[in-house]
Amino acid sequence: MHQFTIAELVKGLRNKDFSSTEVTQHYLDRIARLDKTYNSYITVTPELALQQAAAADARLAAGNAPALCGVPIAHKDIFCTTGVRTSCASKMLDKFIAPYNATIVENYLNSGVVMLGKTNMDEFAMGSSNETSWYGPVKNPWATDCVPGGSSGGSAAAVAAHLAPAATASDTGGSIRQPAALCGLTGIKPTYGRVSRWGMIAFASSLDQAGILSRTAEDAAILLNDMASYDTKDSTCVERDVPDYTADLNKSLAGVRIGVPKEYFGEGLNPETAALVEAAIKVYESLGASIHSVSLPHTHLAVPAYYVIAPAECSANLSRFDGVRYGHRCENPQDLNDLYMRSRSEGFGNEVKRRILVGTYALSAGYYDAYYSKAQKIRRLIKQDFMDAFQQVDLIIGPTSPSPAFQFGSKTKDPVAMYLEDIYTIATNLAGLPALSIPCGLVDNKPVGLQLIGNFFAEGPLLNAAHQFQQATHFHQQTAPGIE
Fold this sequence. Notes:
Structural class: alpha/beta
Number of strands: 11
Order of helices and strands: HHEHEHEHEHEEHEHEHHHHEHHEEH
Distance between the termini: 11 Å
Helix content: 25-40%
Strand content: 5-15%
Number of helices: 15
Shape: globular
C-alpha cells in the first residue's frame, strides 16, 4: 500500500479497494517501525490522523467527498497546525502549540486530507543539509551517512522512505528542490504569491514559498490543485483563479522552446551530474521540444545577494522570539537584559544566530546602502535576466544541485561551501518564479535532480514538462536501497 502514488491512492479510495483508516494505519505502523533510522518526523499524530481518517471514510461513503479525501500526507513543521506542536525544528519553539491552522493546512483539512504528523527540517528553514535541527539531523534514505538536503529534508526523507506518500514543504532559496534532487523526488516551488504563506513561520518573507514534495509530477499537480488559493489573510497572495493543474499533463511538448543557460554548466558542477542533465535535455529533444542556449549573466551574484537579503529579513522576523513575546524563556533571569540575551542565546542554534548577526549588520546605520540596498539592485538585475530569457524560450532547464548528497559534517565548518549547494536554485526565489526538480539519474547510487524553471504562474507547463519526462523515463520509479 505504501508503494502507491497519490493518484493511485485517490483511485483506490474511490473504488473502495481500501479505506482511509487502513491506509493511515499502514503508514503510522511504518513510521513507528522505521523512522528511528531516518528521523524524518518531529511529531507524529496517530490519534488525530485516525480521527481524520474515520471522518474521511464517512465522507467517502456519503458519495460527495473532494478528490483528495482520505489521502494521508505529512506537513513540514514550519506550518502551524491547531493543537499540535509547531516547532520549526528549534528549541525556541519546542513547546509552542499552534492555536490555528496555516491556510494550506486548512485547505487540505477541508479537502479531507489526513495529517500523519510534522516533519523535521533545518532550524527555522536555515540550512542546505538538514543538520541544524534541534531534534537532530535527518538521514537520506538513499545513503544514511549522507544528508537529505535542506531545509525540507524531513519531508523529503519521509516520502523517499515511503513513510508518507507526499509532504508539504517550503522553499526560500531551494529548500524544496534541493532535497527533492538529493532524495530522488519531484519537488515544486510555485510562483511567489500563488500559495498563501499565512500560518507559515516566516524566515525571509519576500522569498518564502510553500510547495510540495511527491514521487511524481502527476501527484504534485493533484496536490497543488488544493494547496493553491487566494487568501485575504496574506497580503502578498495574488488574486487569480487556480487552474486544474492535471488538465494539461498529457499535452505534447512539440514546439515547446527550452532554454539552457550556459552559466549553469560552469565551474563547480559535478561532471557526472552535468552528463546526466545533458542526457535529460536530449530526452526533451526526442519529445519534440526545441533546445536553445540562453544567458543569465548575473547568476554568479545570486548567492551573495541572497545572503544579504535573506538574513536581513530573518533578523527582523525572528526578533519576536525573545522569551517575552514568543519562544523559549531562560530560567532565573537576573534582569530584563539578561532575560533577552540568555533566552535568545539558549533558544537559537548557531546557524540561526549567524544569520541574525549578518542580517542585523547589513541593516545597520551606515551599512544599509552598502549591502542591503545594493543586494536589492542585484535582485532586480537577476529578475530582468529571466524576463529577457523568457522572451526567447518557454522553460529553462539545468541542474538542481551541483552534486549528489554529501556526507554529514563535510560542509558544516565551511558555511560558504554549504551556501553554494543552492547556487542553481536561489535565483528563482529572488525573481519570484516557479520551478521544480525531478530525478534524472544516479551518481554513485545517489539521485541527481533536473531543474525546470517557468515564467510567472507557469506551474501548469512546468508540471506538463515534468510529467512528459517521467512518462519517457524511469528515474522517478527508482526507490532507495533497502526500502521495503
